[in-house]
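Data deposition worksheet. Section B asks for the primary sequence of the deposited chain exactly as it was used as input, without tags or linkers unless they were present during the calculation. Section C holds the resulting structure in C-alpha cell form. Section D is free text for depositor observations; keep each observation to a single sentence. Incomplete worksheets are returned to the depositor.
Section A, Depositor: J.P.
Section B:
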Amino acid sequence: MKMNIKIISILSLLAAAACSSSSSLSSEEARSLALQIVPGTLESIEATVDGALPVWAARVRVPNGALLQVELDRDYGSLFLVEDEAGPFTYELAPAVAGQLSFGEAKTKALAAKDGAIVAWNLKLKSPAYRHEFYVRDSAQQLWEIKLASTTGEIQSVEAKAAID
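Section C:
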C-alpha cells in the first residue's frame, strides 16, 4: 500500500509540474520530485543539458552512502534518468514510474542474466519507454552491459563491454 501511495504521489507531482502555469519545472519542484523518486539527502541540483534535453540534475545521497543522480525534464517535469555509477548497490528504490519494476526487481533479473558484481546502473527514458541498464563485472573481470525492459524485466540485450558507456 505504501508503494502505491508513493507512486500516486510521484505521478501527482509529475502531473502538477507538467500542468503548472509556467512552462517549466521550477528548482523547488525539481527538488521535491527528485526526493520523491530517490529518498535521501539532496546534495546538489543544477540546470543542465543532457544531449539536447534541458534537465534538472539532482544528486541525492541515500542512507547506505550511495550517490544517485536524478534528471528531470525542465520543460515538462518528466523523469529522464536515475543512475548510480559507484554504489554500493545495497539500497532499494520503489518504481520511479507506475507499472515499472523496482530497482531490486530489476537488479535480480539483471544478475540472473549475468552473474557478477554490479558496477553501475541506470533507468533512462528511451522513447517511448524506460529501460534499465546494468553494468556487471563477472569473476573473470569481464564487463557486461545488460539492458532490460523496465515494465516486464524482459532482457533486451547482454553485451560484453570494454568500459561503461
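Section D:
The longest helix spans residues 2-19.
Residues 1-21 have pLDDT under 50 and may be disordered.
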